[in-house]
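Lab notebook, entry 419. We have the chain sequence and a SMILES string for S-adenosylmethionine, and the next step in the workflow is to get a structural model of the bound complex before anyone spends time on docking refinements. Request logged below.

Task: model protein plus S-adenosylmethionine, output structure tokens.
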Amino acid sequence: MAMCIYKLTYFSLSHYPPTSIAIVDILTTLVTTILVVATHHPNINAVVELLRQGITELGVGPYIEDKGTGDLRYVQMAVTTYNTSLPAAERYMNGLLLSFFNSFGKFKLHWFRYKLNALANFLWKNGGPRSRLHLIHSVWANFQTSTNNIIFGNRWRHLLGERDFWEHVGGIDVSLAPCSFGQANTRAFDTLLRKLQKYVPYESSVADLYAGAGVIGLSLAATRKCRSVKCIEINKESKASFEKTIERLSATVDSSITWHHADASKDPFLWLVGSDVVVIDPPRKGLDASLIDALKNISSVERKALSSSESTNSSQEEKRPWVLRAKEASVQIGNRPSPANIPQSVPQTLVYISCGWESFKEDCKSLLSSKAWYLEKAHGFNFFPGTQSIEVLAVFKRGPQKKKPGKKKKKQLKGAVKH
Ligand SMILES: C[S@@+](CC[C@H](N)C(=O)[O-])C[C@H]1O[C@@H](n2cnc3c(N)ncnc32)[C@H](O)[C@@H]1O
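Result returned:
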């Protein structure tokens, strides 16, 4: 089926010899593998084919991990189906690609000037807006000069095409930058968001932890009329996408919305207080231990919140660091009071979105063992068809699980029969 992984396709060139013939072989192998995976968006396969031709013609050398030689390490592509000039039914098949190259080793100017530009121009000429097949939206380069196993470095360069890349998901227009996290399967993600929205009461205050560019929080602000939304994310590059997305939010969205460049594991109490609903969407490794502890000890968080709100009422000058930080990074929409000025609540609903089944099971066990939360509902989503991976949306509620009224009735009924 075509509905599947149509975004973020990586292929590593790292284990192959650095000759262009070998690259053809590598790519032939890789392309064959990629093409037979019918789950990819067809335009990814078409651009992979173009890339194979370009790499061969220009003699671009692959990075050899063991030797530390070569140039090109990864190529990543993402498809947007955002094109409102087309009828909705045609948008998917007409998706355009954002492709980016990842070069490795010391930053080599000659390589950048010649081969990287030549490769980008080759793609643009054959797949850009003036080509017979318009496949490519933009081309970017990333420079990873460290020898660790982190795929992307901090340096990005926009080479060709439009800078802004938009998708429509969860009821809002979302700006996606190559340097910020983006979900791999936007269609499946949209389904998950629609489900998630139903668990968030209208007018809630929401904390979106591990927020990336804040897509989840902003989607909730728009669809659930949230009083406030705080997005907490460790990657500062995501802020630019968040701000662009905010600009396109409907004027009817009347929430206090903030994005914070912060580590959710450092003093998580700061982010839990003042929220009715917490959404957590951690990387594959799952939740940080300090956040799990804070969630397990949510009652003490509640006591702390009460005492700090009492002490704040009596003092004139605001000193609490989380309030000061919230003010600093705040993007206010509408006339709602900021989170600092509303009564301090602690979350009653915890929504856990997981892409790592094993870590989710551990975290879930840990949360339930504390009796601070019970699992109300869980849904599975197939974000990566053909793989073992499953995306989970789990909804936890505060306190020990209440007995279902139906069961009680049965007991009474049994008793009544006995006597
Ligand atoms: C699975 S992604 C989810 C992103 C976002 N919720 C979305 O759907 O677009 C996990 C995000 O957590 C961020 N992250 C990882 N560790 C973090 C931490 N300790 N504190 C805050 N954010 C973190 C990553 O940079 C990444 O953007």
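Notes for the group: The pocket of S-adenosylmethionine is lined by residues 181, 183, 210-212, 215-216, 232-235, 263-265, 281-283, 288, 355 (CB under 6 Å). Worth checking against the assay data. DSSP finds 13 helices and 15 strands in the chain.
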